[in-house]
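Duplicate of #3305? Posting structure anyway:
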């Protein structure tokens, strides 16, 4: 189970960092997609920065919970926009990522509450 969670964590970190970086760099596809829903370039860069910071915070055990919350919030915003766009397949994948972030948060809380001591 631990290996599974570590693999999921790596995937989520890479996804958050790459997604944030594309928004910060104002990639054409992101600018057009989010622009249709009122995101200005400034808002998109801020949104991407939050994703990037969240992805970085996910790496460190002490900041993992905060990072997971930040990434989950940004993914939920993306989920809403995807549903509004009618892109249900990608929305479902995004929802699965949010659920996996919830699993990471739960696992991090459990480790924190038992002091990292295994029985």
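Output from current build:
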């Amino acid at each position: 189970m631990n290996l599974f969670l570590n693999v999921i964590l790596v995937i989520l970190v890479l996804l958050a960092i790459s997604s944030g970086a594309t928004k910060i760099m104002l990639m054409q596809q992101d600018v057009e997609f989010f622009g249709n829903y009122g995101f200005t370039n400034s808002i998109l860069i801020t949104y991407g920065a939050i994703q990037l910071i969240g992805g970085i915070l996910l790496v460190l055990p002490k900041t993992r919970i905060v990072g997971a919350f930040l990434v989950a919030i940004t993914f939920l915003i993306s989920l809403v926009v995807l549903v509004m766009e009618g892109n249900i397949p990608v929305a479902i994948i995004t929802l699965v990522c949010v659920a996996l972030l919830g699993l990471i948060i739960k696992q991090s809380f459990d480790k924190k509450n038992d002091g990292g001591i295994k029985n």
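Confirmed duplicate; merging threads. The first helix runs from residue 2 to 24. The two ends are 16 Å apart (CA to CA).
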